[in-house]
């Protein structure tokens, strides 16, 4: 069936190719290093689209350096970033970075499970001799949920892959431990944002740095100077959580403005003069590892106690049968906020009536009664973006009974209604 075309909006690809077949190929046009390369919209925690402007020169330098020194990829090496090409990981590490260093890039359309089975990642890695693999923790959790014993991985093997890198969502220690055990490879969690364009926290694997601590994203990458600040902008001691900031100027490749939004750009540097506010909460430990525990709005105030939902998630994720989880803060008339957990069971644990009780008891045992986690819901899925980020703000609105706009980036638009029904809320 031929689509109805509406000129000049629509262009017939076959007709265009025929009409331009003999047209001369234009010469490459030189651009300045600080000329804009692309605009990529991100919403962050605000839900309001922000057009991150990427520059040409610094971006190319940063990506080439990271491929050589973090991922260990050079000319001819097959590299696979299992992401959507429309997100920043896709822009940076499916398209630009592999091309800049002459590597082979793998373009993959599908999901980690169901296309056709939980072995699709390992099959693709083995078939294309992938040397370094980059994916999101949520994808690994999906594989583990469907294949907890890694049967497909045992059958297919890991091919020529030397390391697995995780980013996009906090990697809980239990998921990292499972993947390292089943794959036999170093699993390296690392952290960055659309605004930054390339890893800012990592263990530089290709420089021989194999130091890693489950639950940490590693160390500041050369070019980024991090500081953990309290609400008054003062540095906090190691081990104490605070606002994760980066001292200015930012490294090459980071955004230099927001498209037609200078005020929005300046806001990123307003709370802590001389520092970029990442919007994340975290801490340095005594060994210098940097731990990202979640967004600053995921630090909840329960009866005057500041608690990290990321810390609670780490405890919940370690319980038997938990494939993935999210903990959010819900409004409470007495305590201001209370934590509520959402748990997705692994295969074989769907009918485990003890799961809700076990995760509540585990958080209480480790954090004490002050954590006040008294409610946990077992659900089939969590609401996520197509890049794998859990939409915690959407969960928060559901439990608070607030009006909800389903974001266009959601992977499965039916999930919010299913969760609302579970918690006894009506979608507004």
Give the structure's gist in a few sentences.
This protein has helices spanning 13-19, 57-71, 88-101, 120-127, 137-146, 151-156, 173-183, 262-267, 309-317, 355-367, 392-400, 415-423; strands at residues 36-42, 50-55, 78-81, 104-105, 132-135, 163-166, 187-189, 201-202, 219-220, 226-229, 242-247, 275-284, 290-295, 299-302, 305-308, 322-332, 336-345, 375-378. It has 428 residues and is an alpha/beta fold.
Textual characterization of the structure:
With 428 residues, the chain is α/β, with parallel strands linked by helices. Helix content is 27%, strand content 22%. It folds into 2 domains: 36-294, ANL, N-terminal domain (Rossmann fold); 303-423, GMP Synthetase, Chain A, domain 3, CATH 3.30.300. It has helices spanning 13-19, 57-71, 88-101, 120-127, 137-146, 151-156, 173-183, 262-267, 309-317, 355-367, 392-400, 415-423, and strands at 36-42, 50-55, 78-81, 104-105, 132-135, 163-166, 187-189, 201-202, 219-220, 226-229, 242-247, 275-284, 290-295, 299-302, 305-308, 322-332, 336-345, 375-378. The strands form 6 sheets. A 5-stranded parallel sheet has the order 4-3-5-6-7, sandwiched between helices. A 4-stranded antiparallel sheet has the order 10-11-12-13. Strand 16 (322-332) and strand 17 form a beta hairpin. It is globular. The model has no long low-confidence stretch (mean pLDDT 91).
